[in-house]
């Protein structure tokens, strides 16, 4: 799919307007743990733990400390209503959350105010960010399967990392198992997500993601799958990356 032009005159945008519209409709439901975002709420503690532990290894911090990320600057790209921004702010990080959907940012600001948390939320895209801004931790969680050009998007994300920083990317693998579970199972059988939330052909395999990251001079240092146990109704981190998975990447020259 062709990249969208950027009316601000900066770098071309990888944002897909149809994807923004999809998630804008869900903005009021982000913080309802029993609603359509219930699966995300169940996955979230595992995402937070994976990122926290990887960051603590990278920056030599104690993951058991309640302020283990103090002094670190983090950006969550495609932050939605702030489900990751809030826990990392509580862990001491200085967090910026950006999202192209204004309704998501409004929901994020409202919830942060209610929670008395200071988070810098911005209704913008990664291409529209000041190119001089740099971060210790760059998050692109469940985003790349919704952009128009994965390589260009990751290149811009990588450019926002400090030389000693790290990036964490989460996405969905592309195979028949992911089609059966993430599309048919999640959208049509379990009805966890509205039909059409994901497009299977836009899923990214771990091999493809590794190559895209290498194109941005990043190397994968850690990876993990996320697996759902239907009988126990819970998610766990796993070596199985057939469906949901996460990767940590660092600057080769860092």
Lay out the secondary structure:
Elements: H1 17-24, H2 38-59, E1 73-77, H3 85-90, E2 94-98, H4 102-114, E3 120-122, E4 135-141, H5 150-159, E5 161-172, H6 176-189, H7 206-215, E6 218-229, E7 234-238, E8 244-251
Parallel strand pairs: 1-2, 1-4, 2-3, 4-5
Antiparallel strand pairs: 5-8, 6-7, 6-8
Describe the structure.
The chain is of the alpha/beta class and 254 residues long. It has helices at 17-24, 38-59, 85-90, 102-114, 150-159, 176-189, 206-215, and strands spanning 73-77, 94-98, 120-122, 135-141, 161-172, 218-229, 234-238, 244-251. It has an eight-stranded mixed beta sheet. Helix 4 links the parallel strand 2 and strand 3. The longest helix has 22 residues, at 38-59.
Radius of gyration: 17 Å
Basic shape: globular
Strand content: 15-25%
Q: Give the helix level as a range of percent.
A: 25-40%
Query: How would you classify the helix and strand content by structural class?
Result: alpha/beta
Low-confidence stretches: 1-10, 187-191
Task: Profile the largest sheet.
Answer: 8 strands, mixed
Q: How are the strands of the biggest sheet laid out side by side? A: 3-2-1-4-5-8-6-7
Please, what is the average pLDDT? 85
Number of strands: 8
Count of DSSP helices?
A: 7
Secondary-structure element pattern, one letter each: HHEHEHEEHEHHEEE
**Between the first and last Cα atoms, what is the distance in angstroms?**
33 Å
């Amino acid at each position: 799919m062709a990249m969208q032009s950027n009316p601000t005159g900066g770098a071309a945008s990888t944002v897909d307007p149809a994807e923004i519209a999809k998630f804008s409709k869900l903005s009021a439901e982000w913080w309802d743990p029993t609603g359509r975002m219930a699966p995300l709420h169940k996955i979230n503690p595992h995402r937070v733990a994976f990122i926290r532990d990887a960051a603590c290894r990278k920056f030599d911090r104690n993951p058991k400390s309640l302020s283990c990320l103090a002094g670190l600057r983090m950006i969550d790209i495609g932050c939605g209503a702030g489900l990751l921004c809030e826990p990392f702010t509580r862990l001491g990080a200085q967090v910026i959350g950006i999202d192209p959907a204004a309704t998501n940012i409004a929901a994020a600001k409202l919830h942060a105010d209610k929670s008395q948390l200071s988070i810098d939320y911005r209704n913008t895209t990664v291409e529209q960010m000041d190119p001089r801004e740099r971060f210790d931790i760059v998050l692109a969680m469940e985003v790349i399967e919704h952009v128009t050009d994965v390589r260009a998007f990751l290149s811009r994300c990588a450019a926002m990392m400090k030389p000693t920083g790290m990036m964490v990317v989460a996405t969905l693998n592309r195979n028949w198992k992911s089609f059966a579970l993430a599309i048919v199972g999640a959208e049509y059988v379990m009805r966890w997500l509205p039909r059409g939330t994901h497009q299977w052909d836009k899923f990214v395999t771990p091999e493809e993601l590794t190559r895209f990251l290498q194109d941005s001079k990043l190397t994968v240092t850690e990876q993990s799958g996320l697996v759902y146990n239907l009988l126990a109704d819970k998610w766990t981190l796993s070596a199985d990356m057939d469906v949901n998975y996460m990767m940590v990447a660092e600057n080769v020259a860092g």
